[in-house]
Each structure stands twice: as structure tokens, then as C-alpha cells.
Amino acid sequence: MFNFKWPEKGVQFDDELLNSLYRYALSLSNDQQQAYDLVQSCCEKVLLKKVAKKELKPYMLKSIRNQFIDQYRRWKLELVIDSDLEHQERIDEQQTAQGLEQLMIDRQHLAIILQDISYQDRELLYLWAVEGNSMQELAQRTNTSRNTLLSRLNRLKKRLNQKYGYLNEQVGHNG
User: Is-above-0.85 flag for pTM?
Assistant: First the structure.
């Protein structure tokens, strides 16, 4: 595969090591591109960190495993197992935007709500509502499909309406 030597540290990745790492990554991911990315990322980490030669392979195997688990956890958080998935994927961004705009709240209540939602939802709301990024831009930026982001936004809107819908009525009567 590769024979790369980093001149300053003398780290060398021979074919046997890289092939072994690739097979391990492939056994974890069951995806050739992801396995390649895991090995590449691991090699970059080794080049940035001094690792003793006898500890190189165990360190790299552990690094690949940890990175795969991190990616799997992120993917699992994004995974939507729902019978309505096909319906949710057809959600139009404009309809979702109108629904969130209808949920009017004041700053005091906003602080309470923001503490109650996940960091992923806060990030999504910020980049979409405050920064004005389109769902397509967010999908490219976060390496998440546009439909997944639309589904998350729609589920968030529903949760907020269910839990804090009364605020909309209060603000509507006061404003």
C-alpha cells in the first residue's frame, strides 16, 4: 500500500503494518472507504505523537478502534429508526421554518429551553436560525444528510411545541 517515512521522527509504515491495520479497520467498519479513512487518520495521529516502535502497532490498533467507536456513537445518535422515516425525509425546509417561527418566546424562556436541548440541537438551531445557513450548507458542513437534519429540526420543533407550547400562547397574549 504505502511506504511513508517521516524524516524528523523516523516513523515508518511498511506494507505489512498498513495492510494489517486496514484489515482490522475493515473488520470493524465493513466499509472500504471508512476503513481507509480510519487508517489514514491513525497514521496522522502517530506522526504527531512520539510512539515507541515496539508499541506502534498496538497503539495504532487501539487508535483505530477508539476512532471507529467515536464515529459509531455519532452515527448512532443520528440514526433514526422510525416507521415514519420516509415521510419525515420529505419534509420541506420552508414548512419547518414556518413552524419554528410560529413558536414565539421571550429571552428568559429561551434560556430555559436552550438548557433543556442537546448540544447537537443547539448547534443546529444556531447555525440555521442565527447564522442563516441553509440545510444543504449545514449538511455539507457537518457531513450529515440534509434529510437527517430536516428530520432533527422537525422532531425538535414537535418536542418544543409539546413541552413549551404554552409559552407561545402567553407571549401571544402579552405581545
Answer: no
CA distance 174 to 168: 10
CB 135 within 8 A of CB 145: no
Quick one: DSSP state of residue 53? G
Instruction: Using the structure block, give the residue that is written with the C-alpha cell 509504515.
Output: 13
Grid cell, residue 9, equals: 521522527
Residues 38 and 106 in one domain: no
Domain count for the chain: 2
Long-range CB contact pairs, 145-150, < 8 A, 24+: 147/88, 147/89, 147/91, 148/78, 148/80, 149/124, 150/88, 150/89, 150/91, 150/93, 150/96
Whether residues 127 and 149 fall in one domain: yes
Structure confidence by residue, pLDDT tens digits, 66-122: 898 888 777 766 554 444 454 554 555 555 555 555 555 556 676 677 778 887 787
> How does pLDDT run across 146-169, given as a tens digit for each residue?
999 989 988 988 888 888 777 666
Domain span at residue 21?
Answer: 4-78
Same domain, 114 and 70: no
CA 58 vs. chain centroid, Å, equals 27
Which one of 45, 78, 111 terminates a domain?
78
